[in-house]
Structures are given as structure tokens and as C-alpha cells.
Design a protein that fits this description.
Elements: H1 2-35, H2 46-80, H3 88-110, H4 117-145, H5 152-188, H6 192-225
Helix pairs in contact: 1-2, 1-6, 2-3, 2-5, 3-4, 4-5, 5-6
Length: about 230
């Protein structure tokens, strides 16, 4: 009974953190969506628009961190419930890897105004190039064969999560370009071409956001209801 109590405590705490990470992911993206609206308002001064960009970046650090944490949280919870077979040292390694990844994300946030930012954020993106296809492949394979992610809803979550990481990656590209474009605008004092590029990127990002929210809510539904 003592062992069971320890297991339940760990599992419930992980589930609690998982819920918080999902909440900040969904809610944080809404905050970035609204803060970015004024970036293309030419009636505002460049300094004012940059302040709104700064607000968006400060909000975005929460969903950026939350989405990374969801990977080990989901795998750990899945192992506890018997839906995925990898535990023990592998799971410990996954948490160590994620801690380093989160440290990278947070460091990039604090270095966003330095030349080193591009190196950090491109490293973050490179990690996603590995994680995304791995999650997608394992999820699809499990949906077709029934393993190694044994539950259909759990495998479906892995597939959808990989798709959401792709959307998140595209949004990262857009936010990365904000800094470059605003630095160029500040250097040359205004450019119709740059303004058009900024407006186009933001319009594309807003369209992506709707698919993002739908996918996040779908994954939340699968985790809560476990329909298949």
C-alpha cells in the first residue's frame, strides 16, 4: 500500500503538471495572437510596435516551455499507465534531455536581443527536426499495428502532437523574422517591402493559429475522454 501511495502521488503530480502545461500552451498562444495584431499598425511608432513585440515574446515563453515539457510528461504518464513500454533509464534520459532543451529555450528568450539568439533558436529548431518525425512515425505505426503505443487514443495524441510541433515550428520562424524585420526597419527608417513582408508573415501566422488551437483542444479531448 505504501508503494501504491507513492505511485499515485507521482502519477497525480505528473498529471497536474501536464494540465498546467496544456493550459499555458493554449492560453499563451492566444496571448501571442492578440499581442501581435498591432505589429503591422503603421499608425504606431516603431518603438511602440516593438514594445508589443516584446510583450508577445514575454507571453510566448510560457507556451514554448509548456510544449517541450509535454513530451516527457506524456511519455512518463504513458509508461505509468502501461501505454508505452519505455521506462527506467530511458525515461530518466528523456527527462535529462528535456531539462537541457528547456534550458536552451529559456536561454534563447533572455538572449533574444543579442546576436547569439539566432544560434540558440536554430538549435532549438534542429531538435524539433528529430523529435517531430520520430513522434509521427511511432504514433502512426502504433495506430496501424497496436504497438508500441498500445492505446489508440494515446497513439493518436502522438501523431497530432507531432503535427502541432510542425505548426509551432512555423510560428517560431515567423517570430524569429520579427526581430530581423524590425531591426531592418529601425536601420533604414521604413520600407514598404519590409512592411508587406511583416504583414504577410503575420497573416499566415494567424491562419496557422486556428489549426493550432483546434489540435491542442483535440489532444486535450483524447487525453480526458480516451475514446478508443
Amino acid at each position: 500500500m505504501e508503494f501504491l501511495g507513492m505511485y499515485l502521488d507521482e502519477h497525480l503530480m505528473l498529471r497536474w503538471v501536464h494540465i498546467i502545461a496544456m493550459a499555458y500552451w493554449l492560453g499563451g498562444e492566444w496571448g501571442v495572437f492578440n499581442a501581435s495584431r498591432l505589429l503591422t499598425n503603421a499608425n504606431l511608432s516603431l518603438a511602440e510596435r516593438k514594445r508589443h513585440m516584446e510583450t508577445a515574446y514575454r507571453i510566448d515563453i510560457l507556451p514554448r516551455t509548456g510544449i517541450v515539457l509535454l513530451l516527457p510528461l506524456g511519455l512518463h504518464l504513458g509508461y505509468n499507465m502501461g501505454y508505452q513500454p519505455l521506462g527506467g533509464n530511458w525515461l530518466v534520459g528523456m527527462w535529462i534531455f528535456t531539462a537541457a532543451w528547456v534550458a536552451l529555450v529559456i536561454t534563447a528568450f533572455f538572449k533574444r536581443k543579442s546576436p547569439f539568439y539566432m544560434v540558440l533558436t536554430k538549435t532549438d529548431e534542429a531538435i524539433r527536426y528529430v523529435v517531430i518525425p520520430a513522434l509521427f512515425a511511432v504514433g502512426v505505426y502504433s495506430l496501424v499495428t497496436g504497438g508500441p503505443l498500445s492505446a489508440g487514443w494515446y497513439a493518436a495524441k502522438a501523431v497530432i502532437f507531432s503535427g502541432l510541433l510542425i505548426i509551432g515550428l512555423l510560428l517560431r520562424y515567423i517570430m524569429r523574422d520579427w526581430i530581423t524585420i524590425f531591426n531592418q526597419l529601425e536601420a533604414i527608417g521604413g520600407s514598404a517591402e519590409l512592411e508587406a513582408k511583416l504583414a504577410s508573415a503575420l497573416a499566415f501566422g494567424r491562419k496557422l493559429a486556428y489549426f493550432y488551437w483546434a489540435g491542442i483542444m483535440t489532444n486535450a479531448f483524447l487525453g480526458a475522454v480516451k475514446p478508443f
